Every structure is written in structure tokens, then in C-alpha cells.
Write a sequence for this structure.
């Protein structure tokens, strides 16, 4: 860079010297003047280049410094890591006494269990928002006055008879009669509410579905999530079966309703078969009796015809002993004889 | 109404066999002891049922308290995995071991509080994990 600039300075000096020479000889040459101007321009360009060079150099210096700093930082970090690792390796872990017994299980078992309890522990989306509001509301209400909370629940309707199940009604049904102000407001209900609020200024509430249709279009309507078995479930369970049996004087021990049912069915079947058999026998007997009667009737007819024939042959001469063989048809024969 | 536990033979101190283990298991009204006790222990998750038991004076019966202690076997394998309402069931089973809780559950305020807390926890437990990064 120095040589580059020196050459330019030299050229300017030479041009200047020759111009001065020419001036001192009182013979100024235009050509020399132009040469000087050109040399001066070159010098200016050279100085420009010098400036760029300096800037570049400064940038290089700066980058070098940065690299050095980063190197130092990296070294620091690695050093710190090494020190840390050493420290960690040398640290003795405290062994806490187990809070309870530990049990082994496999991932498959865990996933299986998670899938099984998902329906009873994870609330549906509609109930999440509703229950979050409801829980907040009930929490607030429970703190101040549980009676008010109770009243709000009662106003929803669909409550179950709780004569023997404590004081609090379980809101199991959808809040069809009560209206949307009930604490567990589901998501869709909230949306429609805001919709109507925004539209009441423009039109009437045409988009609001009638209360009785809402549950049909949205199954999550009024859904309340309970993380425990609800009263209906308990009432329909095995314990209630046992309770029913014992209140009806049946010892539930060893008593299986299904087996009982089966036994009853079999008994019924046997009874029906016996009836059927008896009926068939009766029919058979009837049929036999009928045949017997018919046979007898035929015989009687035949004998009567025989008697008539004989009487016609004998022309009024009727044998008394011929009558004797039809003892149980005496009446008829007597009539015949009388004619 | 299912007043259940006292009508079942609870004098046995051994937990019932797992389903499928023994086919000759005696049945009570068509159900095995395992099924009945599983249903009962899960019903304990319902605060209103606890209140109902309290009003029927079950919770002051020492025999019933012994039965509750016996039911603690549900908190360990292999029975643990049969609970479909694990949270409230185990919580209430644990609380029922305390005499003070057995005395206080008769008050509707506590029942309301348990319901509110239980429903809040039932909804929030997974939202907490969702908000965490």
C-alpha cells in the first residue's frame, strides 16, 4: 500500500517540479499543468483506496478480536463444564427414605390403565368449561352460603329424589327448565348467549334455539362432570342388588340371580312338558272314548236294523229273548217295540 | 339403597382374589366379594355417599371403621389398577381413616366443599400439565 501511494506522490512531485521548472523558465506549458492535475487525481483516488484499506484492516482486527473473545468464552465454558462434571461426579447423592412402598409396573400396564380410566377421569370438552365456571361458582358459593348454591342447583330441575341420600340433590339431568344462568354453563350455551347479546341490538333472538331442542343438537349441553361414581350408578350397582335381596329376606350368600333365573326357567320348562304330556294323555283317552262310543253306536244301529229285519220277516212275531241282549238300550227298544 | 358393606361377610381379613383367579369364588347376589368391594370403595369417592353413610350412623360403628381399614388394600397392587376413579377414591379412603373426618362428613358444608374441590380438581388436573411448557 505504501509503494502504491509513494508512486503517486512521486508522480505529483515530478509533475509539480517540471511545472515549476517550466514556470521559472518563463515558459509555462499547458501540458505539464494537465499532467499535474492528472497526477493529483490519481493521488486522490489512491488516498480513497487507502481509506478503504484502513477500514478493511480495522474490520479484520475487530473480527480477530471477536474470534479471540469467542475462543476464550468457549474455553471458559468447556472448562466450567469439565469442572462441573468433576464436581457432579464427586458429589454424593442423598438417599431419601422412601415415602411409601414402591411397586414395579410396565409401560404397557400403565398405558392400559390410563386408557381404562380416561373416560372417568378426563372430563369431556363441554364439561371442562362449564365445570370450571361451575366449580369456581360453587367454590365461591360454598364459602359464603351453601344454601344459595343448593338453591341454584335445585332451580336447574332434573334432580333426583334424595330422601335417603343426604341433603344435596345431584344434578344429573340437563338444565332444561332452569335456563342458562345455572353455574355449570357449557361451552355451546355460552357461545349462543354471547351471540344473542351481540344480536339483540340488531334483530330479535331468532338464532337462539328453543330450550328443548338445544340438548338434541349438542350432546354436551348441560353436561356436568363428576370425578366419582354418581348416585344413579351406585343405586344400580351390585351393592344395591345385595341390599335388595337382603331386604326381601333372601340371604345373598351363594345366591346368584342368574342361576336362580336359570333354575326357574328349567322348572317352568319341566312344568310345561308335564302339562303337555298330561294334555296328550287326556286327548288320547278322549279319543279312545269317542271311538268306543262310535263303535257302540254303530253296533246299536246294526242290531236295530237286524231287529227290524227280523220283525218284518216274522210279521208281528217278535221274539222276546232278542230284546234281552241289548239290556242298556232297553228304552229305545221298547219304543221300537211299541211302534 | 345400597347399604351394602355390613351385609357382606367382611370378617375375612384377606383381600379377595383377583377376577379370574378362582372360579369357585362364593357369590353374593351373583357378585364376587371382589366386585362388591371394588364397587363400594369407589362409591366412597362420592362425597354425598359418604354423607349418606354418616347419616346412617355407619361411620361411628367400630366394625365399619375396621372394614374401612381393611379396604386400604385397594391402595396397592394388584388391586390399585382396578380403580376407575383413583383420585377421589383413594383420597376419601385415606380421609376416612381419620376419626375427625368421619365425624365431620355429616355436615353438608363439608360435603359441598368436597364436591366443589373434587370437581375443580377433576377439571384442572390436566389443564395444569397442558399449560406447562
Amino acid at each position: 500500500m505504501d509503494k502504491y501511494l509513494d508512486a503517486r506522490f512521486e508522480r505529483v512531485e515530478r509533475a509539480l517540479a517540471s511545472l515549476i521548472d517550466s514556470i521559472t523558465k518563463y515558459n509555462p506549458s499547458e501540458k505539464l499543468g494537465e499532467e499535474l492535475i492528472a497526477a493529483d487525481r490519481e493521488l486522490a483516488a489512491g488516498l480513497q483506496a487507502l481509506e478503504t484499506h484502513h477500514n478493511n484492516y480495522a474490520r479484520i482486527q475487530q473480527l480477530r478480536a471477536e474470534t479471540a473473545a469467542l475462543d476464550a468464552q468457549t474455553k471458559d465454558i468447556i472448562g466450567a463444564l469439565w469442572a462441573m462434571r468433576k464436581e457432579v461426579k464427586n458429589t454424593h447423592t442423598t438417599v431419601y427414605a422412601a415415602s411409601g412402598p414402591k411397586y414395579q409396573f410396565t409401560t404397557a400396564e400403565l398405558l392400559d390403565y390410563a386408557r381404562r380410566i380416561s373416560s372417568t377421569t378426563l372430563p369431556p370438552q363441554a364439561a371442562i368449561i362449564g365445570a370450571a365456571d361451575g366449580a369456581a361458582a360453587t367454590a365461591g358459593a360454598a364459602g359464603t352460603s351453601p344454601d344459595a348454591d343448593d338453591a341454584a342447583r335445585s332451580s336447574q330441575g332434573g334432580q333426583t329424589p334424595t330422601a335417603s341420600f343426604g341433603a344435596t340433590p345431584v344434578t344429573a339431568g340437563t338444565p332444561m327448565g332452569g335456563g342458562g344462568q345455572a353455574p355449570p354453563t357449557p361451552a355451546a350455551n355460552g357461545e349462543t348467549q354471547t351471540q344473542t347479546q351481540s344480536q339483540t341490538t340488531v334483530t330479535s333472538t331468532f338464532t337462539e334455539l328453543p330450550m328443548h331442542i338445544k340438548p338434541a343438537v349438542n350432546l354436551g349441553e348441560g353436561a356436568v362432570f363428576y370425578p366419582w361414581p354418581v348416585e344413579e350408578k351406585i343405586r344400580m350397582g351390585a351393592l344395591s342388588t345385595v341390599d335388595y335381596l337382603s331386604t326381601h329376606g333372601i340371604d345373598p350368600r351363594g345366591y346368584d340371580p342368574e342361576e336362580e333365573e336359570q333354575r326357574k326357567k328349567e322348572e317352568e320348562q319341566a312344568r310345561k312338558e308335564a302339562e303337555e304330556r298330561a294334555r296328550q294323555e287326556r286327548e288320547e283317552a278322549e279319543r279312545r272314548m269317542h271311538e268306543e262310543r262310535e263303535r257302540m253306536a254303530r253296533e246299536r244301529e246294526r242290531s236295530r236294523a237286524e231287529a227290524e229285519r227280523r220283525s218284518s220277516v216274522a210279521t208281528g212275531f217278535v221274539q222276546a229273548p232278542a230284546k234281552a241282549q241289548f239290556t242298556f238300550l232297553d228304552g229305545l227298544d221298547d219304543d221300537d217295540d211299541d211302534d | 339403597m345400597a347399604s351394602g358393606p355390613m351385609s357382606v361377610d367382611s370378617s375375612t381379613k384377606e383381600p379377595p382374589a383377583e377376577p379370574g383367579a378362582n372360579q369357585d369364588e362364593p357369590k353374593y347376589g351373583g357378585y364376587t366379594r371382589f366386585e362388591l368391594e371394588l364397587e363400594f370403595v369407589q362409591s366412597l369417592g362420592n362425597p354425598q355417599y359418604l354423607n349418606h353413610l354418616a347419616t346412617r350412623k355407619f361411620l361411628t360403628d367400630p366394625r365399619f371403621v375396621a372394614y374401612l381399614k381393611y379396604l386400604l388394600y385397594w391402595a396397592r397392587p394388584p388391586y390399585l389398577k382396578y380403580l376407575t376413579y383413583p383420585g377421589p377414591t383413594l383420597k376419601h379412603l385415606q380421609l376416612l381413616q381419620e376419626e375427625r373426618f368421619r365425624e365431620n362428613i355429616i355436615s353438608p358444608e363439608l360435603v359441598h366443599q368436597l364436591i366443589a374441590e373434587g370437581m375443580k380438581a377433576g377439571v384442572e388436573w390436566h389443564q395444569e400439565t397442558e399449560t406447562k411448557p
Observations:
- The first helix of chain A runs from residue 2 to 24.
- Residues 123-158+181-227 of chain A form one domain.
- Chain A has twelve helices and no strands.
- Chain A touches chain B through 57 residues (CB under 8 Å).
